[in-house]
Amino acid sequence: MKCRIKWLDHMSFVGESGSGHSVVMDGAPEAGGRNLGIRPMEMLLLGLGGCTAFDVVSILHKSRQRISDCEVEIAAERAAEVPKVFTSIHVHFIVSGRDLDTTKVSKAVSLSADKYCSASRMLEKAATITHDFEIVNLD
Length: 139
Hints:
- This protein has 3 helices and 6 strands, in the order E-E-E-H-E-E-H-H-E.
- With about 140 residues, the protein is an alpha+beta fold.
- The protein has 2 domains: about 1-40, Single Sheet (N-terminal domain of TfIIb), CATH 2.20.25; about 40-135, GMP Synthetase, Chain A, domain 3 (2-Layer Sandwich).
- The strands form 2 sheets. Strands 1-2-3 form a 3-stranded antiparallel β-sheet, with no helix packed on it. Strands 4-5-6 form a 3-stranded mixed β-sheet, with helices on one face.
- Helix 1 (about 40-60) packs across helix 2.
- The chain is elongated.
């Protein structure tokens, strides 16, 4: 896997993935940015959210759950001093569908967190990561 980051101007950068997609990253105005894009540390949380959501949706499909939506909300705390690493991360899943089995949703979340999500496994070396979920039954 490869990617490329190119400085645009001020504190703006474009990230180009090996799969051909791009994203703009920028800093806050107080850090010399112009608020034109997502912050790099936010990108880490989005990567975590996407990675774990991918797992949960895949596991639930394989267990024949009739899901219609999966949202992941992430709240994180960072250290006060440089390097301002994440110290705690909470991942909250909102899974919607018909006749969803609480045990299967719980198992999907746990399997992602404990086994499959590469991003979770890497970030847990620096931060305490917790997970929970809610089910929205559309019956």
